[in-house]
Amino acid sequence: MDKSVSQRATTLLIVTLLIVTSTALAQAQSSEPPETTVHTVQRGQTLLSIAQEYGTTVDAITHANGIADPRRIYVGQRLVIPERGEGSDTMELVPYVVQAGDTVSSIARHYGITWQTLVHVNSLLSPNAIYPGLVIKVPRVASSGEKPGAFPQTVGSMIYLVHPNDTLRRIALRHNVSPWTLVVNNHMTDLAAIYPGRELVVPGEGPGLLPAPFASIEIQPLPVTQGTTMIIAVHTTEPVKLQGELFDQDVHFAEESGAYYGVAGVHVFTEPGLYKLTLTAWDSDGHSTALTTEVVVRAGHFGYERIDLPADRASLLDPAIIATERERLDSVQYTFTPERHWTTPFQRPCVGTITAYYGTHRAYAAGPYTSYHTGVDFRAPTGTPVHAAAAGTVVLAEPLTVRGNVVFIDHGWGVLTGYWHLSSIEVEVGQYVEQGEVVARVGNTGLSTGAHLHWEFWVGGVSVDGLQWLDESLPWPMAGDLATGG
Ligand SMILES: [Zn+2]
């Protein structure tokens, strides 16, 4: 990286940071309402050009006017321009993105403050209430005589103002971080969600030094929602064998392009809260290093339904039959193959309307809501082609009692898709299929009350919502071309 460019960029960031923090402080300190400036949008103006004209930021204008999408303003729109504060010599708050391995004490020590101050400033409920990816405010004392360039270079994070023509990749390259790091640290759900004037948190060298051989840990998304998938990326200083444990289950890692990736599913009934993720790395000498970090699970939104089965089919719910079939599925669902055959997004497996979503909490007859819908239902006439959602190897293709004719495909890295109630199966176990290949036909076999495709998605042995994987804006680095062969 060009050092002078980097230094100029750093200075620019720091200036921006000063404006942001001093504006916030000025607003907090003024007792009487500031005079309001109103700007009427002219042809050709953007939020960035307006922000520059008034010496404020796009985010400040966006916030002051409750603008939903900063990319859309219209000629004649009246915008309140927030007051720009004067420099002050009071406490400034600097954003810091909590890294894996950080504690409130280690961050406080690094910034020369007490952990109590950190807890107070951030209204933390306890010193344990931080987790990787959380953006906290770190107070630092700045005197009015201090020039922006005198900022310590060890500031945990910086605010970068997106310029016209910036791309995420370009910004990442300039700051020597990965595009994924920017996505994670800015809680972005859409890779294209950068626009001129947006403020991005760019993590710098923080206090969170991980024990060797761990170099970095990135988890996306954080927090993760019940019934969805997260990907854990680990960089190390030397080749290792890596193993993870989360929700009392193993997380298997696969190596690709010098990084290790673990795909983990969050069971739909996992209680929202903080969970420990333990990673253990073995070096070539067999020495192991373990590291524990935390993952936040938040509640998903699921429907509730009661199901009354026709009398002739109710007998199929015999516990012995259910158990036998469960064992058959377990034999394939925990499959882990180290080769990745998939890219994101996955392909919709079938045409047709979605009639039942994943995760809907279910009760049979008058019973309790102890089960849930483990897949996504697509209503389609019998005979409609069923396509492989991604490339992979067929690991199950046979008739079952409850699920009817089923096909399961192993896509690698512990990711599998399943197709139920099929009228016909058009592949064999062991067969490699390409994404989009017809593997079966929609049907009404097994415990089904009308022709439809029930589509399952399994990650590390956990059933998750497949619709997440169809989203084109998935913030994972596995989009597009495969890094490894198919
Ligand atoms: Zn279903």
Brief write-up:
This protein has 10 helices and 28 strands. With 486 residues, it is α+β, with helices and mostly antiparallel strands.
Description of the structure:
With 486 residues, the chain is of the alpha+beta class. It has three domains: 91-203, Membrane-bound Lytic Murein Transglycosylase D, Chain A (Roll), CATH 3.10.350.10; 214-298, Sandwich (Immunoglobulin-like); 304-470, Distorted Sandwich (Glucose Permease (Domain IIA)). Helix content is 20%, strand content 32%. The protein has ten helices and 28 strands. An eight-stranded mixed β-sheet has the order 7-9-12-11-10-13-14-8, with helices on one face. Strands 16, 19, 21, 22, 23, 25, 27 and 28 form an eight-stranded antiparallel β-sheet that branches. The chain has a three-stranded mixed β-sheet with strand order 15-17-18, with no helix packed on it. β10 and β11 form a beta hairpin. α2 crosses α3 (58-65) and α4 packs across α5. The protein is globular, with a radius of gyration of 26 Å. It starts with a helix and ends in a 16-residue tail after the last helix. The protein binds zinc ion (ZN). The site of zinc ion has 5 residues, from β19.
CATH architecture of the largest domain: Distorted Sandwich
SS content category: alpha+beta
**What is the CATH homologous superfamily assignment of the largest domain?**
Glucose Permease (Domain IIA)
Small molecules in complex: zinc ion
What is the count of distinct domains? 3
- The whole-angstrom Rg is 26 Å
Overall geometry: globular
Provide a count of the helices. Answer: 10
Sheet-strand content, in percent, reads 25-35%
Which strand order spans the largest sheet, edge to edge or round the barrel?
7-9-12-11-10-13-14-8
CATH class of the largest domain: Mainly Beta
Question: Taking all residues together, what is the mean pLDDT?
Answer: 79
Return the CATH topology of the largest domain. Glucose Permease (Domain IIA)
Contiguous low-pLDDT stretches (5 residues minimum) are 1-33, 85-90, 141-156
Helical content band: 10-25%
Tally the beta strands.
Answer: 28
Measured between the Cα atoms of the first and last residue, the distance is 34 Å
